[in-house]
Each structure stands twice: as structure tokens, then as C-alpha cells.
Amino acid sequence: MIDLYYWPTPNGHKIPIMLEETGLEYRVRPVNMLRGEQFRPAFLKVNPNNKIPAIVDRDGPGGRPLALFESGAILQYLAEKTRRLMPRDLTGRYTVIQWLTFQVANVGPMFGQCGHFLGYAPKRIPYAIERYRNETLRLYGVMNRRLAKHRYLAGDYSIADIATWPWVRVRWLHRIDLDEFPHVRRWYETIAERPAVQRGVAVLEERMKIGNPDSKAREALFGRQQLRQGQRAGQRRSTPAPRRRVTPPPGTRAAARGRP
Ligand SMILES: N[C@@H](CCC(=O)N[C@@H](CS)C(=O)NCC(=O)O)C(=O)O
Questions:
Q1: 109 alpha carbon to ligand 1 midpoint, in Å?
Q2: CATH fold of 2-84+200-207, please?
Q3: Where do the structural domains in the chain lie, given as residue ranges?
Q4: Residue 23 and residue 82: Cα distance in Å, rounded?
Q5: Architecture of 90-194 per CATH?
Q6: Number of C-alpha atoms within 13 angstroms, CB side, residue 237?
């Protein structure tokens, strides 16, 4: 039995999709991140980084429980445990790890920032929108060129596709038109037809809310609790980052040029 600490978001969706694909038994432990449940001490013991998804495999290695966070690590663990959705040969395996890392290090953070400045920021900041939307478009270009030559991101359908697909599903938030990326569209639609994928995204679907946070959600996701989480009463509080221009240390070449 696997406990799935979960909320319906693109990062969250990866894990129920994988659990449905592999047929592992699981129970959902909702972590309502819009109401600050990611800061509960019991959850912080599973993920000290206060983010979903996370799992506890009650039947982990050696029959002992294993707690894991970070969707990329969870997907690799479940693939190894079930010997599914990840090739065994070294080349195939590292091709999957490469595209999985491409997702967690590029697609997630850049699409995430793009969505933040388009759908969550309290005011419109054109520079930030342009910067992260350009990165999002660039990454769609990388995927489109890859998928022009390959049916899936890393050979056969794998955990690399499972990690990436939920982020393309919320493309409306990033103002992406798949007509511009026809190979991504073909790939997206092929995966959308998989019954396990449909069952995975249906988990807590009725509670999914992307963009337009109310004041409680804004406080939970971007407020002071983010800096205080995990600290005991009486510990020194972190102060928010100051709003000032960055100046290079004296004596550096950047300082001589008069700019960072
Ligand atoms: N790198 C992490 C990202 C997880 C993540 O950003 N989770 C978001 C939801 S999509 C979250 O839990 N946010 C709550 C918070 O930051 O307090 C992963 O891939 O698992």
C-alpha cells in the first residue's frame, strides 16, 4: 500500500498517473496547499520542502516503509519497483533519465514561473511575463523537434512522458497554442487517450483550481509561512529578501564595469 500525499496540480498529477499505469495499490492523502496543509508537522516529516507530491511506500525496500518526495525521484522509484515504464539497458535508461531531468529542471520551473506571472501575480509585470513565456515557448520548440523524430520523448512511453504531459495539459494558463507545435499535439493527444492517464487526472479533480488564488491561497502559497515553515517557536525569523539593486562586490571586474 502506498500513501499518496497529493493535491491536483501538474506536479501532483504525475504520481496518480504512474500508480494507475503500474496498478500499484494506493490511498490518497489530500494536502490542501491552498489552505496551508503543506506546513503541517506530520507532512513536513514526509517532505521537509513543504510541497506535493510525496509518497510513503508502506512496503518499501526490505519490507520497511520508505518516504519519498520530488516527483522525479518518486517516478524513478516506482518504475524500479515495478520494472515498468523505464528501460533496463543503460542507454535506454539514461535517455529516460535525461528527459525526466529535462522536465523537472526546465519544464516544471519555467512553465511554473510563466503561470505564476500570468495567473497568480497580484500585478502585471511585462518583463517577467515575457521572460518566462519566451522560455516556455523555447521549451515547446525543443519538445516539438524531439517529437518530430520520436513517438515519445525517450523512446517508448515512459516516466519522462508521464512527468511532462500534465504540464502540457494546463497550457491554456501559459497561452500556448498547440497548432504551433503539431508534434507536441500528436504526442499529447496519444497519451490523453490512455485509460490510466484519465483515471490519474480524475483523482480529486473536482478540487483542482489553477490561477486566481483567493487571499488564503495567496498567503499559503506565497506568504510568510513559506519562510517560517519548520522553525520552532523562539527561533530567529527569516526576513524577506530586500528590494534593492544588486551591486557587485568592490574590486571585482563587474564592479569596475559599474554593473553586476
Ligand atoms: N520539484 C517538485 C515541485 C513540487 C511543487 O512545486 N509542488 C507544488 C504544487 S505543483 C506545491 O506543493 N506547492 C506548495 C508550496 O510551495 O507551498 C517536484 O517535482 O515534486
A1: 10
A2: Glutaredoxin (3.40.30)
A3: 2-84+200-207, 90-194
A4: 9
A5: Up-down Bundle (1.20)
A6: 8
Fold: same for 2-84+200-207 and 90-194: no
Helix (H/G/I), strand (E/B), else coil: 175: coil
Could you give the dihedral angle defined by the CA atoms of residues 121, 123, 128 and 129, in that order, rounded to the nearest 10 degrees?
80
3-state secondary structure of 25: coil
Say if CB 6 and CB 30 are below 8 A apart. Answer: yes
**Ligand 1: lining residues by beta carbon, under 6 Å:** 9, 11-12, 33, 38, 50-53, 70-72, 104, 108, 221
User: The whole model's pTM is what?
Assistant: 0.94
Cα-to-centroid distance, 223 and ligand 1 (Å) = 15
Q: What tens-digit pLDDT sequence spans the chain (260 residues)?
A: 999 999 999 999 999 999 999 999 999 999 999 999 999 999 999 999 999 999 999 999 999 999 999 999 999 999 999 999 999 999 999 999 999 999 999 999 999 999 999 999 999 999 999 999 999 999 999 999 999 999 999 999 999 999 999 999 999 999 999 999 999 999 999 999 999 999 999 999 999 999 999 999 999 999 999 998 777 655 666 666 666 676 777 887 766 665 55
